[in-house]
Every structure is written in C-alpha cells, then in structure tokens.
Amino acid sequence: MSKALSYLGLATRAGKLLSGDELVLKSIRSSEAKLVIVAGDASANTRKKFTDKCTTYEVPLIIGFDRERLGSSVGRPERVVLALTDQGFADMITKEIEKTPEVEYIE
C-alpha cells in the first residue's frame, strides 16, 4: 500500500476525512474540504461533477487509485469520493501522490 493510502487511513482515525457524494459536496460548498480524491474507476458523470465543483470552489482535486483501494485504506467497503478536512493531511497526501504513478489527474 502506498504512503498516500496509509495517510488516508490515519486521517480517517483522526476524524479528518469524509466520504460519500453528499457529504463531500457539502464540504466543498462550505470550504471545509481541503482536498478531494475521486476514484479512477468512478463514472464519467461523477468525475465531471466533482471536477466542476472543485474548480468552481477552488478545492484541489485528485483522480486516482480505484474504489476498492480507497475503501480498504479507510476501513470501509468501496469508496468513490473522499474529502480531507485538514490542511496538514491534504499537504502530506498531495506530496506523496506526486510520486505515485497510479494517479492520473491532479488539479
């Protein structure tokens, strides 16, 4: 497992991670989200929805990994979208993601 995924588990235990469409959208709108991660195997509609929202509200977005790996990293079944609410965790994960070839899009 990559360090970025390990950091996601750590953020979950610290209570600094949200998952699920509605919670993540709400956190983007309220400027609570510091980083949004969308699974690489998410539907085109989901990718577009979160790309548009993150661009509008100027929230960094990462598209990568797959839903099974994201889910297992946070201790839940498949997860398609995650939001980090702590800038420290967002910075650590962004730094690690830049070294990871599994990520296809970083904004």
Automatic annotation (TrEMBL):
Protein name per its UniProtKB record: YlxQ family RNA-binding protein
Domain (Ribosomal protein eL8/eL30/eS12/Gadd45) ranges: 5-90
Organism: Paenibacillus haidiansis
Pfam family name, one: Ribosomal_L7Ae
